[in-house]
Write a structure and sequence with these properties.
Order of helices and strands: EEEHHEEHEEEEEHEEHHEEEEHEHHEE
Largest sheet: 10 strands, mixed
Number of helices: 9
Oligomer: single chain
Distance between the termini: 44 Å
Helix content: 10-25%
Structural class: alpha+beta
Radius of gyration: 19 Å
Number of strands: 19
Shape: globular
Strand content: 25-35%
């Protein structure tokens, strides 16, 4: 069974149902904690009553700075929403680690962003170095991946589309809410990954709901492809794509063909005029709730609940 770890300003905690036991460790970073698994195991097996989880303020269990890498269009349902047909080549992009925030803090919309979108994603937290050239088979995953987290790949769509700029559009501060739990996996837990269900709601309305079975490039293959050019280290984070249901969806093919004939400025003005009628983009006062878990609770990454606020 996986072990859920929580991070607060005071240190690290092992979560057991509604209570948490402090981990006796000097670890400050996620990488340091992963190197002190004995302390985590000791806390997990402790007979202490612990502290109510409700009394703790969770921070991101992934500390920064670290590498934050993400997969693009990696669920079949998202590919359909995005207008892709046929084979989709695997693609990665980087996010600034300064975008990582806690599971209960506000998502802050910059003043120049009008179309703020959500993307619940399973985050893989590395537990061992992944050198360039590494080939990862399914059986090798426990050797490289230490645990899992809930992430939200928040996106400024007007920046992303008009500038074709993923890095900027997804890297503003608070654009990667992470946690609450870092689920540290045992080798036998990896056989249950495809049962994980990603769910995201806005103001109680379910928007995204898929299991990893909808994933196009699964974790072992993704790490192999990434290792063609990118080194990863313990504590680094890989976001593995989002299912369908985001606010942004591709226009009908006929509209898309007409748009391709227009000058870029005219095309984007027309596109965003129609998007302004879309009620699914995030606005101040919205509350985004995201969870990832298996149906039997064997792996449960906790609930992320983030309000949306406008920048001052």
């Amino acid at each position: 069974m996986s072990t859920n770890v929580l991070r607060t300003a005071d240190g690290w905690w092992v979560v057991r149902d509604a209570r948490a036991v402090r981990v006796d460790t000097k670890a400050v970073t996620t990488a340091e904690l992963l190197a002190d698994r004995a302390a985590v195991s000791e806390a997990a097996g402790s007979g202490e009553a612990g502290t109510p989880v409700a009394d703790l303020v969770a921070l991101s269990p992934v500390t920064t700075p670290c590498r934050v890498v993400a997969q693009m269009v990696n669920y079949r349902s998202h590919a359909r929403d995005s207008g892709f047909t046929g084979d989709i080549p695997p693609a990665f992009f980087r996010k600034a680690s300064g975008s990582v925030s806690g599971p209960g803090g506000a998502i802050v919309r910059p003043s120049h962003v009008n179309f703020l979108d959500y993307e619940v994603e399973l985050g893989l937290v590395m537990g061992a170095p992944l050198p360039v050239g590494t080939v990862v088979e399914e059986r090798d995953l426990p050797s490289y991946v230490a645990g899992l987290v809930v992430t939200n790949d928040v996106s400024a769509r007007d920046v992303q589309l008009t500038k074709t700029q993923f890095y900027e559009s997804k890297s503003y501060p608070t654009f990667t809410p992470t946690g609450p739990h870092l689920a540290l996996l045992e080798p036998e837990d990896f056989g249950h990954l495809l049962d994980l269900r990603l769910r995201l709601s806005v103001n109680g309305e379910l928007r995204q709901d898929r299991t990893l079975a909808d994933m196009i490039v699964r974790p072992a293959q993704a790490l192999t492809l990434l290792a063609r050019f990118q080194t990863l280290d313990p504590g680094d984070l890989l976001l593995t794509g989002t299912p369908g249901g985001t606010a942004l969806k591709a226009p009908p093919k006929a509209v898309e063909k007409i748009g391709a004939l227009l000058p870029p400025a005219v095309k984007w003005k027309a596109f965003f005029k129609t998007q302004a009628k879309n009620p699914h983009y995030l606005h101040q006062g919205d509350v985004v709730t995201a969870t990832i878990a298996t149906p039997d609770g064997r792996i449960d990454l906790g609930e992320q609940r983030t309000p949306v606020a406008d920048a001052n």
